[in-house]
Amino acid sequence: MPDLTGNTALVLGGTRGIGRAVGAALAAAGAHTVVTGRDSAAADQAAAAIRAEGGKAEGVAVNIRDVEGTRQTISAVAEDHGGLHARRQRGDQPLFRAA
Fold it and tell me: Which domains does the chain carry?
């Protein structure tokens, strides 16, 4: 993976499984990684595990089935971190569905 130092990555559904592994890999490559999950404690725990390995991370609670809440989270992360350079979401969950 390339050096991602100075970049911000958002991992939607990053509290377990593949999402958690992706978040850890992005952080190991230098990205400030924001992991999300429906449960704030799980998101915080995933971020704490990344930080324990020396990465930069924070957890945010958001349900990706809540389209407006997800959009707000994406915008807030981009604004808080001077941009959003990478985004990963669960493959079985379209981020924005047609009404």
Answer: 8-88 (3.40.50.720)
